[in-house]
Design a protein that fits this description.
The protein has 252 residues and is α/β, with parallel strands linked by helices. It has 9 helices and 8 strands.
């Protein structure tokens, strides 16, 4: 039996088994940003319905339902903050909003986070979680992979660090673009990380998959990610990494 107050105090991690439960976007902001320092950018940016997607529910209806459920305009919050008095560009994806799927708004806000941080000489920390591209927007969603990757290339040219934190789950188009383009890639324990899901891969290849396939520890051992860090250690670890990366920075 777990008490909600105890989970909140322990950053939504079970003290007995170490299981990492989901966190809200505000909890992530409070966890990484100095108190009152987060200044959100483009909070009111909302998705449109370019394809006039219809089905069991229209895309407009799904957006409205998720906006009412979360109190947010879309699946990501971005802005400027300080972490241990160090200015950073900070973003957090919210799986509670349409599985943090990447549509044109998510891609645009990630791009603006990176471009604004490049202009202001800020390192970037982005907490990633996603079920993948937002199918309701078709090709416009897939285009965000290239756009965000281009912005990160310009950020890197200026010698600025970028650290993505991969949480459960981080999959498909997000994983195949900005989630795995960091200078140092960090993941939470036992997070599902991959492009296609393990069941799809197994059915396609007709092969049994290794134990722990697509979990963060497996991918660390195979070299895709750099570190698996428990939630209680993440802020201190990332703060130290940013100190080192900024000290070693060679401005363009």
């Amino acid at each position: 039996m777990l008490y909600s107050d105890d989970l909140v105090k322990n950053l939504q991690v079970c003290a007995s088994c170490g299981h990492h439960f989901p966190m809200s976007r505000q909890a992530r902001i409070d966890m990484f940003c100095d108190e009152g320092s987060f200044q959100e950018w483009d909070a009111d940016m909302k998705s449109m319905d370019p394809l006039k997607f219809t089905g069991t529910d229209s895309y407009e209806a799904k957006l409205k339902k998720n906006q009412e459920k979360t109190g947010q305009a879309d699946a990501i919050a971005i802005g400027r903050a300080t972490m241990d008095d160090r200015p950073i560009g900070f973003g957090v994806m919210d799986f509670a909003f349409l599985a943090a799927s990447m549509g044109s708004v998510v891609g645009e806000k990630v791009t603006r986070l990176i471009e604004n941080s490049t202009e202001q000489d800020l390192p970037v920390l982005l907490v990633c979680a996603s079920g993948g591209a937002r199918m309701y927007e078709g090709m416009l969603s897939l285009m965000q992979m290239a756009k965000t990757s281009g912005a990160l290339a310009r950020h890197a040219e200026k010698g600025l660090p970028y650290i993505p934190l991969l949480t459960h789950p981080t999959t498909a188009g997000v994983m195949a673009s900005y989630a795995t383009l960091g200078d140092i890639i960090i993941a939470e324990p036992k997070a599902l990380i991959g492009f296609a899901g393990p069941r799809v891969i197994k059915e396609t290849t007709m092969q049994d998959l290794p134990e722990g396939f697509q979990r963060s520890e497996f991918l660390r051992d195979k070299g895709l990610i750099d570190q698996v860090v428990p939630r209680g250690e993440q802020r201190k670890r990332i703060s130290l990494l940013l100190d080192g990366l900024m000290a070693a920075r060679v401005p363009a």
